[in-house]
Every structure is written in structure tokens, then in C-alpha cells.
């Protein structure tokens, strides 16, 4: 299969995320996401606020209590969430704990994805926890965004695979606390190799570009 994919070929694999974008998320997933969102805010405050020692101690004690409380429950059965809730009613059920796009994972920025024809578009904002050079995003975090973005784009084909090679060209420093947008698409498929390209922008400024080769499973 060497021909490039067109938008319709891609979109048939994108039913969950696009069709369900307006569906309300309630119950346990809504609470997981709310908790993750508050944890993101805590992380941001921890990294920027000049908090007195006594308040840090108090916050750590509170979180220690919370960690013990949450840790007292049995682990979910592996992939329980997918089997039970991967329906168009919950667009993120497949991916809610992803480190990049998972709304139930506090370490995700999160990166928000939409499909536009044959282009996968993303939006995100890096907080201080993702700082590399002063005021700028860490290069490794940018690479992770591209891995997810290009990885997601190729996962929408009929032969998804794993990242083999990811090459990033960092053009200019990527600012923190700034609305960023990115895009990726499958460029071509050759045998088991899926070639993808992507770009990351701050406004009109191209911050970084990526090329990825993904290897479909045998
Ligand atoms: C809706 C749900 C959304 C879900 C959306 C979720 C998106 C998440 C995206 C995250 C993606 C990841 O992070 S994945 C995690 C990071 N990646 C990994 O851990 C992969 C680790 N590496 C591997 O498992 C392996 O090395 C593979 C699978 C990449 C390749 O092994 P293999 O399958 O045995 O390959 P092999 O037969 O030797 O070679 C086949 C052909 O590919 C070439 N090839 C082999 N390795 C590579 C390579 N690394 N980069 C380039 N090309 C390679 C060979 O030269 C050969 O070309 P020729 O001679 O045929 O021309």
C-alpha cells in the first residue's frame, strides 16, 4: 500500500473523537477529569508560587492523606475503561490516561486534537512544569507532543504501528503560557512504514517541525 491516504480514508477511523465532541461527560469520568485538572493547577502553583514553608508542609500533609485514601482502592482491571466506556458517548474513553491528551491524567498539558480533512490538528499550552530554557518549553516535552500527534495521525490508518524514528527540528524556542497549535498528517505508506510529518506554531511562528516513521505491526 504505497498511495497516500485521503481525508475520507482517515476520517472513518476517527469516529470516536470527532462525532462525540459535544457529548457531555458525566459520572466517574467527569470526576476523574476534574481531579486531574485540579492536580494540574496544584502542579502549576508548586512550580511558580513563592509559598511559605508552613503552607507547603500543610499541602504535602493534605496530599499525603489523599494519596493514602486513593491508594486504598483495588486497581482497575487492565483496560476496564476501554471495554466499558469506549462508545461515541465518551470520546476520550480510549485515551483518557494518555500522558499527552488524557484529560484524566494530570501530567498531560493536555493536547486537544481534532481532525480536519486529512490533517490532525492540536492545541495546547505548556505551563511552567514543562519549562526547559527559561520561559520556554523543554525540547523533550515538544518531542513528546509530536510523538503523540504523529502517532495519533498514523493510528487512524488501517495499519497503526509504533514509533520507529522521530526527528524533530527545533526552529525557535517555544514559549510557555502561550496558546500553541500543531498539525500532522500521514505523508505516505510504504509496506509496513507509515511516514508522518508535523508542525508546531505559536501564532504565526513556526517553532518546531517533525518527521516520523512508524512501523505497522507484522
Ligand atoms: C483511536 C486510538 C488512538 C491512540 C493513539 C495513540 C498515539 C500514541 C503514540 C505513541 C507512539 C509511541 O510512543 S510508540 C513507543 C515508542 N516506540 C517503541 O517503543 C518502538 C520500539 N521499537 C520496536 O518495537 C521495533 O524496533 C520496531 C517495531 C519499530 C521495528 O521492529 P521490526 O518490526 O522488527 O522491524 P524490522 O522487521 O527489523 O524492519 C522492518 C523495516 O522497517 C525498518 N525499520 C526498523 N526499525 C526502524 C526504525 N526504528 N525506524 C525506521 N525504520 C525502521 C527496517 O529497516 C525495515 O525496512 P525495509 O528493509 O523493509 O525497507
Automatic annotation (TrEMBL):
Database matches in InterPro entries: HotDog_dom_sf (IPR029069), THEM4/THEM5_acyl-CoA_thioest (IPR052365), Thioestr_dom (IPR006683)
SUPFAM superfamilies named among the record's database cross-references: Thioesterase/thiol ester dehydrase-isomerase (SSF54637)
GO biological process: fatty acid metabolic process
Superkingdom of origin: Bacteria
EC number: 3.1.2.2
Domain Thioesterase: 135-205
Catalyzed reaction equations: hexadecanoyl-CoA + H2O = hexadecanoate + CoA + H(+); dodecanoyl-CoA + H2O = dodecanoate + CoA + H(+); (9Z)-octadecenoyl-CoA + H2O = (9Z)-octadecenoate + CoA + H(+); decanoyl-CoA + H2O = decanoate + CoA + H(+)
Gene3D superfamilies for this protein: Hotdog Thioesterase
Mode of membrane association: Peripheral membrane protein
Annotated Gene Ontology cellular component terms: cytoplasm; membrane
Localization, UniProt: Cell projection, Ruffle membrane; Cytoplasm; Membrane
Major localisation: membrane
Entry keyword set: Apoptosis, Cell membrane, Cell projection, Cytoplasm, Fatty acid metabolism, Hydrolase, Lipid metabolism, Membrane, Transit peptide
A GO term for molecular function: thiolester hydrolase activity
Assigned protein family: Belongs to the THEM4/THEM5 thioesterase family.
Protein name according to UniProt: Acyl-coenzyme A thioesterase THEM4
UniProt organism field: Steroidobacter denitrificans
Amino acid at each position: 500500500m504505497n498511495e497516500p491516504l485521503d481525508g475520507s480514508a482517515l476520517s472513518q477511523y476517527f469516529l470516536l473523537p470527532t462525532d462525540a465532541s459535544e457529548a457531555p461527560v458525566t459520572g466517574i469520568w467527569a470526576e476523574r477529569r476534574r481531579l486531574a485538572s485540579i492536580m494540574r493547577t496544584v502542579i502549576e502553583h508548586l512550580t511558580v508560587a513563592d509559598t511559605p514553608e508552613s503552607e507547603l508542609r500543610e499541602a504535602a500533609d493534605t496530599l499525603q492523606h489523599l494519596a493514602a485514601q486513593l491508594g486504598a482502592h483495588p486497581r482497575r482491571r487492565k483496560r476496564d475503561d476501554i471495554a466499558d466506556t469506549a462508545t461515541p458517548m465518551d470520546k476520550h474513553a480510549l485515551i483518557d490516561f494518555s500522558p499527552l491528551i488524557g484529560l484524566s491524567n494530570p501530567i498531560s498539558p493536555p493536547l486537544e486534537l481534532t481532525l480536519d480533512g486529512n490533517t490532525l490538528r492540536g492545541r495546547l499550552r505548556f505551563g511552567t512544569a514543562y519549562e526547559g530554557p527559561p520561559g520556554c518549553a523543554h525540547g523533550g516535552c515538544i518531542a513528546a507532543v509530536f510523538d503523540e500527534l504523529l502517532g495519533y495521525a498514523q493510528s487512524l490508518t488501517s495499519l497503526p504501528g509504533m514509533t520507529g524514528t522521530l526527528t524533530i527540528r527545533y526552529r525557535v524556542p517555544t514559549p510557555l503560557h502561550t496558546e500553541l497549535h500543531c498539525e500532522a498528517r500521514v505523508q505516505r505508506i510504504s509496506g509496513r512504514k507509515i511516514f508522518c510529518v508535523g508542525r508546531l506554531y505559536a501564532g504565526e511562528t513556526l517553532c518546531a517541525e517533525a518527521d516520523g516513521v512508524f512501523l505497522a505491526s507484522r
